[in-house]
Amino acid sequence: MSWLARLLRRSALGPGSGVGDALVHLAEAWLAQGVAETDGSNAGPDVSWLIHDGGGTPGSRPPWCAYFISSACRQIERAGMVIEYARTGRAVAHWQSAPPGRQLRPDQIWTADPRGLVMIRTRVSRAVTDAEAARGGAKRQGHVALVTAVDPVARTIDLIAGNSTGRGHSRVPGGGAVARERITAGDEAWDRLVGFVRVAAP
């Protein structure tokens, strides 16, 4: 993991920066690398590595947004930082396996420090009621991403996600990649938010 140590040393992390900052810088590094599906759906050298590192089986070509988050957290952990996360390929499992003290409901995001937060929502192609069902422990398909910034005035949440077309699991066609996303209060993604989990200290 010497490459990760070099990355974190070169990043903008300064005195007082925390694990949440490191996690965002790591996700931005994967974004800058241009990770994308290059061998068909849910496949390609980088994608397969992230699926494997996140706890999945690349040969089965699973959707990989949750594996991207699990792998990013695992990379931070291997660099010697303290982080609490689920190593899973199920998006909603990131919420369901987290202790209540690390869970934030959607409306709590506007007053929270965004660093070290993971967003969990259900798919926009499914019913809005799936979000509440997932909060109650039901298995639902979803999407997960790392929070990079929150604007409580504009009511926007900026994210970096794997297996994304820029809007995650949405009605937008195209191959999956590591991409930036934005949720705005009141849009269809906001309506399907399960919540946020703090995996790392700011």
Count of helical stretches: 6
- Based on secondary structure, the structural category is alpha+beta
Could you give a short account of the major beta sheet? 6 strands, antiparallel
- Strand elements, count: 6
- In round numbers, the mean pLDDT is 90
Strand content: 15-25%
**Radius of gyration, in angstroms, nearest whole number:** 16 Å
Q: Helical percent range?
A: 25-40%
The spatial strand order of the largest sheet comes to: 1-6-2-3-4-5
Span between N and C termini? 22 Å
Low-pLDDT residue spans = 7-16
Number of domains: 1
**Coarse morphology:** globular
Secondary-structure element sequence? HHHHHEEHEEEE
Keywords for this entry:
six-stranded antiparallel sheet; 6 helices
Would you write up a description of this structure?
The chain is α+β, with helices and mostly antiparallel strands and 202 residues long. The protein has one domain. Helix content is 29%, strand content 20%. It is built from 6 helices and 6 strands; from the N terminus they run αααααββαββββ.
What's the short version?
With 202 residues, the chain is α+β, with helices and mostly antiparallel strands. It is built from 6 helices and 6 strands.
Topology:
Blueprint: H1 2-10, H2 19-33, H3 45-53, H4 65-78, H5 91-96, E1 103-104, E2 117-122, H6 130-135, E3 142-151, E4 156-164, E5 177-184, E6 193-198
Antiparallel strand pairs: 1-6, 2-3, 2-6, 3-4, 4-5
